Amino acid sequence: MWNKPYGMKEGFLIGGGLILAGLVLQLSIGPVVWNAFRWPVNGMVLSLFLLLIALSHQLRKKVCSFQFLGTNKAAVPALVYAVVLTVIMGLTRQKSLTPGPSPMGEGSLWINYMLNFWPFVLIYVYIAVILGLTVLRQLKTWATAHFSLFTFHFSLLSHLGLFLAMTAATLGNADMQRLKMVTVKGVPESRAIDQQSMVVQMPFTIELKDFIMETYDDGKPKRYASDIIITPHDKAPIAVTIDVNKPAEMDGWKIYQYSYDTQMGTKSEMSILELVSDPWLPLVYTGFYMMLGGAVLMILRAIPWRGSVRQTRKHPKAALLLFALVATCFFCVHHFMPILHSDTLVPALQSPWFKPHIIVYMLAYTLMAAAAIIALFKILKRHSQFSILNSQLANVVYIGVALITIGMLFGALWAKEAWGHYWEWDPKETWAAITWFAYLVYVHYRQIPTHKPKLALWVLVISFALLQMCWWGIKFLPSAQGASVHVYNM
After folding, report:
1. Are 72 and 447 spatial neighbours (Cβ–Cβ below 8 Å)?
2. DSSP letter string over 461-482?
3. Is residue 289 packed enough to be buried (19+ CB in 10 Å), middle (13-18) or exposed (0-12)?
4. 385 exposed, middle or buried (CB, 10 Å; 0-12, 13-18, 19+)?
5. Nearest one of 103, 115, 124 to 19, comparing CA atoms
6. Using 50, 70 and 90 to split pLDDT, how confident is the model at 391?
7. Cα angle at 240 between 237 and 246, to 5 degrees?
8. Nearest to 246 by CA among 257, 238, 259, 260
9. Other CB atoms within 10 Å distance of the CB of residue 23
10. CA-CA distance, 238 to 227, in Å (whole number)?
11. Could you tell me the sign of the dihedral formed by the alpha carbons of 353, 355, 356, 362, in that order?
């Protein structure tokens, strides 16, 4: 133990030490209060964080711990701890931290406030540190090599994009403002209410001209929208129609259709709007688009363009078996996604993002199902044809991980257009993160030269089991009932 160079045992000890340190902080100073990180505090924290990462990178050859943090042997234990803690989060009903002397509330546990739970926060900070050091190491490698598309490869784009998105979203969250404005037909309104029920005066007025609502035959909402006039204090009035998935923008604020008078229904003369200001959004979106680019390059790299034809000719039975397996998995995934066959989609699902998001996830689930079946047969050693697919299994998983990444990012971009937030740790989002991290454990563990192949196969099987919760199990969780906007009663 603690023999240089460090290995995964030391990685698990470091992660365990961070959890213990987090428990000490939780007991001594209480939960993490994110509102304390408003500008300029978050800017200073980010600058200090980047400086510490840069110094650690410079000292990596002198300090063994810093060298270790930029390796897969550090990443795998950190991801495992992230999966375990996030599973706890996904199984428990989460609550918002409220200001006051007893912010946790009566009868609440630490695990009901995981976003404010020090062990959870420290593990994710640890992952961000590993990401930062990995990015600097990869940037140095890229700078000393001849430039080409694949030199600036998917790994660097993915790691840098995730680092940007994580840090900007976390530290910028305190600067995000989400307000509710109740508008009544024919009455100009300039006041909104924040999450602490405080009145905020807006730099413009909004007047509801008409509320539009269409329903299906069974009375369920098909569409609801607001015809409004926005009047800035120093500009001419602007007439716009705000639909679910189609917000308006004014002076750095996005205005969303949030709700209406549900008792009046189609006769409602009131519309509830949500106003969102997110100054850190450009940095977050930069991270998202870099991750999308990295995922696309990962797919291009994982596809055996030349080898697949040669392998098909050499092992036609194995190729036919793989094709049949993937086709069967695709049929099952398509069949067990009833939302695809619904003729009464709720307004939130009537978006250009709907089909790309669902189709990408369908392909990802198909490949991951095939990978899990192959892994199980290899563990049990029951079918000789699957042994021929050994070299292709990793590529199948890599393409699947890239598709999960794309699907998750499509979902985040869609959520921003529909609800005003790209990630809010909704139960569905939480299980999507769990699934993604679990498959990243496999990706990073397999890159360790001394990894155990059978253990890697078990990671695939466990990851696919976790994927089931993200896919269809979420609607059965008591913690998601009434708390998830992704549970649709259709």
Report:
1. yes
2. HHHHHHHHHHHTGGGG-TTTTT
3. middle
4. middle
5. 124
6. low
7. 140
8. 257
9. 15
10. 11
11. positive
User: In this structure, which amino acid lies at residue 302?
Assistant: A
pLDDT at 101: 47
Work out the pLDDT band at 107, boundaries 50, 70, 90.
low
- Which among 331, 181, 291 has a CA at the least distance from the CA of 242? 181
Find, among 157, 107, 102, 106, the residue nearest to 134 by Cα: 157
Nearest to 361 by CA among 369, 372, 373: 369
DSSP β-bridge partners for residue 191: 201
Query: Higher-confidence residue: 339 or 78?
Result: 78
Cα 4 to Cα 65, 393, 433, distances in angstroms: 9, 33, 33
Q: What is the mean pLDDT of the chain?
A: 87
Indicate if the pLDDT at residue 40 is higher than 60.
yes
Structure letter (DSSP) for residue 253: E
State the first-to-last Cα distance of the chain, in angstroms, to the nearest integer: 55
Distance in angstroms (rounded) separating the CA atoms of residues 487 and 490: 9
Tokens, residue 463 = 């990851």
- For β-strands 189-193 and 199-215, DSSP reports them as antiparallel
C-alpha dihedral (256, 261, 264, 267), degrees to nearest 10: -30
For residues 382 and 137, give the distance between their C-alpha atoms in angstroms, rounded to a whole number: 42
Q: Distance of alpha carbon 223 from its chain centroid, rounded?
A: 27
Cα separations in angstroms, 388 against 375, 377, 379, 381, 385:
12, 12, 14, 12, 6
What angle separates helix 453-471 from helix 72-91, to the nearest 10 degrees? Answer: 30
Give the residue carrying structure tokens 């990802």.
364
Q: How far apart are CA 52 and CA 143, in angstroms?
A: 21
Helix (H) or strand (E) holding 70: none
- pTM for this prediction: 0.91
Length of the chain: 490
DSSP string for residues in 92-112: S-------SSSTT-TT--GGG
Q: What is the DSSP letter of 442?
A: H
**Confidence at 176, pLDDT banded by 50, 70, 90:** very high
Average pLDDT over residues 17-39: 95
Residue 309: CB atoms within 10 Å:
11
Q: What is the DSSP string of 37-62?
A: G-TTHHHHHHHHHHHHHHHHHHTTTT
Amino acid 385: pLDDT:
54
Task: Please report, rounded to a whole number, the percentage of residues in the chain having pLDDT higher than 70.
Answer: 86
